């Protein structure tokens, strides 16, 4: 039986969420190496007008060409001719950072919670900083980054963008692990 319980880890869960939230802000607003992967569409106004005319339900996610209900030859022709892509639409309206930042903080809390759950089963109170880092780091890295890989495989996210996202995930995983190692109950 392990002597570290999940409730004993509330402090590293919360503090790691705060530190990761700050780290993520530095990555996106300071370093900006991921931002450059999101380019403006040439002729953006034309695209926006065309999308408005389609009156697509929002929020929504769309793939083109759509493969269901069409013959294989037609889909193959459309795929070859292009464009091929994914379209994510948000509900129009005034953009506010507050709600997004709160949701990200909640996500970081959840990553911390699952990292704590695994660490509480894998480690004891006598575990030192490095051992805690070795367990929590990969868990947090996977939580922050691995979902990007299927986006490249299936939905066209560039591998360059995935690699930059994985670098950020490695940094955020390290911040999570470092916080847990620092605040691990002894």
Give structural notes:
This protein is 64% helix and 5% strand. The chain is mostly helical and 186 residues long. It has a domain at 6-39 and 94-183. Helix 5 (129-145) runs antiparallel to helix 7 (159-183) and helix 6 (148-155) runs antiparallel to helix 7. The chain starts with 9 loop residues before the first helix and ends with a helix. The model has no long low-confidence stretch (mean pLDDT 95). A two-stranded antiparallel sheet has the order 1-2.
β-strand percent reads 5-15%
Sheet bearing the most strands, described?
A: 2 strands, antiparallel
Distance linking N and C termini: 16 Å
Rg, rounded, reads 21 Å
Total beta strand runs: 2
- The shape is elongated
Total count of helical runs of at least 4 residues: 7
Arrangement of strands in the largest sheet: 1-2
Approximate helicity band: 55-70%
Q: What is the H-and-E element order?
A: HHEHEHHHH
Uncertain regions: pLDDT < 50 for 5+ in a row? none
Class derived from helix and strand content: mainly alpha
Provide the residue-averaged pLDDT. Answer: 95
């Amino acid at each position: 039986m392990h002597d570290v319980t999940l409730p004993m880890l509330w402090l590293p869960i919360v503090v790691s969420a705060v530190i990761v939230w700050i780290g993520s802000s530095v990555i996106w607003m300071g370093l900006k190496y991921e931002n450059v992967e999101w380019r403006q569409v040439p002729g953006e106004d034309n695209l926006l007008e065309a999308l408005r005319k389609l009156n697509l339900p929002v929020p929504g996610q769309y793939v083109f060409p759509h493969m269901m209900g069409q013959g294989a030859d037609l889909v193959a022709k459309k795929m070859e001719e292009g464009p091929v892509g994914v379209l994510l639409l948000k509900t129009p309206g005034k953009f506010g950072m507050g709600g997004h930042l709160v949701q990200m903080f909640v996500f970081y809390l959840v990553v911390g919670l699952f990292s704590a759950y695994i660490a509480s089963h894998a480690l004891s109170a006598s575990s030192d900083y490095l051992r805690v880092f070795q367990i929590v780091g990969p868990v947090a890295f996977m939580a922050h980054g691995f979902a990007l890989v299927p986006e490249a495989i299936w939905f066209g996210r560039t591998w360059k963008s995935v690699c930059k996202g994985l670098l950020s995930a490695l940094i955020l995983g390290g911040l999570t692990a470092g916080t847990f190692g620092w605040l691990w109950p002894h």
